[in-house]
Amino acid sequence: MPQAGGAAYRPGMSRHVIRPFAEADLPAAAGLLAERHREHRKRHPLLPAEYEDEQVAVVEVTALWESESASGAVLLEGDELTGYVLGAPKPSPVWGPNVWIEAAGQAVREPEHIRDLYGAAAAKWVDDGRTAQYVLVPDDAELVDAWFRLGFGSQHAHAVRPAPTTRLEAPPGLTVRRGTRDDIAVLAELDLVLPQHQGQSPVFSAGELPTLEEALADWEESIDDLDYATFVAEYDGRVIGSSVGCSVDKSSAHSGLARPDNAGFLGYAAVLPEARGRGAGRALGEAVLQWSADTGYTAVVTDWRVTNLLSSRTWPKLGFQQTFHRLHRLIGY
Ligand SMILES: CC(C)(COP(=O)(O)OP(=O)(O)OC[C@H]1O[C@@H](n2cnc3c(N)ncnc32)[C@H](O)[C@@H]1OP(=O)(O)O)[C@@H](O)C(=O)NCCC(=O)NCCS
């Protein structure tokens, strides 16, 4: 069958044809994405229902397709589109010379086919120098395994849980309360704790470490911002940790079909190193869960670096279930 849109090739002996993604593929790709999302929601009903509708899913795929320097591939079986992948770079320098496959950037009937699709699409990405590659994969074990066999490994977890329905209280000896202007000095100190921790082994994150002065200035400006709920934990009359809750809409990392409806967001938490392991992290996380329930949210979202040995163990204990894996591959070595 003749193919439009450039080089088509047939992997192996199958009747599959792979060719570059084209605008005319958007409706069929959206149909597949809606199908994928219906399966995903069977495991995670808190993910937004609207994207089960291909008329809504098409908006997401179209936005990706229209983003700067987007490209990808589709797989056809006969006349039917049964897989696609779409990637585009993010401008921020923190990700390196990158390409991202976002939550709406892939769907396949057969997980193994993502390897053929990536094989076709990645040639251009690497030719363009985009050697730092990121992909958001639903927690479908076969799909994750297929990406694993493309050289990708786990970097980050996206997770959700229902808002609590019974009241959560801090353990004896620990007080959790709202942060006030009087707490600014320790809040600023605690703001450095996460980037400091994540700069070390085994996270080795390249995230920027603010100075104490910058953190102080930030808190001076934002402490009264009603869109954010700040909590501090006190032990023996001294603040040892903080957490921040807000609407998930404030987080660009959670968007489209990876953003649960009506959800609160556990956006930050840190406990001073010498005070860890006494339940303060749990109590601070639970303060944000309780605030989310009191605010009327039905779900709570958070995310973590999977190489962060502390957060990756703490948040699942608080009932968060992983919905998406962000996988990463660095090419060239
Ligand atoms: C993540 C962090 C806030 C947790 O605070 P903490 O006071 O040490 O945690 P807690 O003592 O309340 O423990 C919370 C739960 O996680 C578990 N947990 C915590 N650290 C653990 C570890 N190293 N190994 C196994 N389980 C661990 C605890 O057993 C506890 O579960 P339980 O209540 O069911 O027993 C804290 O470790 C921290 O500040 N880390 C550095 C910054 C950071 O990673 N922040 C999170 C941003 S995403």
CATH-derived topology of the largest domain: Aminopeptidase
Question: What number of structural domains do the residues give?
Answer: 2
Q: What's the Cα radius of gyration?
A: 22 Å
Question: How many E-type strands?
Answer: 13
Coarse morphology: elongated
What fraction strand? 25-35%
Number of helices: 9
The string of secondary-structure elements, in order, is EHHEEEEHEHEEHHHEEEHEHE
**Helix-strand category:** alpha+beta
What's the story with the biggest beta sheet?
9 strands, mixed
Question: What kind of assembly state do the chains in view correspond to?
Answer: single chain
Overall mean pLDDT stands at 95
CATH domain class of the largest domain: Alpha Beta
Bound heterogens, unique: coenzyme A
Separation of termini? 38 Å
State the share of residues found in helices, binned by percent.
25-40%
Instruction: State the CATH superfamily name of the largest domain.
Output: Gcn5-related N-acetyltransferase (GNAT)
GO molecular function, one term: acyltransferase activity, transferring groups other than amino-acyl groups
Keywords: Acyltransferase, Ribonucleoprotein, Ribosomal protein, Transferase
Protein name: Ribosomal protein S18 acetylase RimI-like enzyme
Pfam families: Acetyltransf_1
Protein model, in words:
By secondary structure, the protein is of the alpha+beta class. The chain folds into two domains: 16-151, Aminopeptidase; 161-320, Gcn5-related N-acetyltransferase (GNAT) (Aminopeptidase). The protein has helices at 26-43, 54-66, 113-127, 141-148, 184-191, 193-199, 212-222, 280-295, 311-317; strands at residues 16-20, 71-77, 80-87, 98-101, 106-108, 132-138, 153-162, 174-178, 229-235, 238-247, 263-271, 299-305, 321-330. Strands 4-6-13-7-12-11-10-9-8 form a nine-stranded mixed beta sheet, sandwiched between helices. Strands 1-2-3-5 form a four-stranded antiparallel beta sheet, sandwiched between helices. Helix 8 links the parallel strand 11 and strand 12 (299-305). The protein is elongated. The protein starts with 15 loop residues before the first strand and ends with a strand.
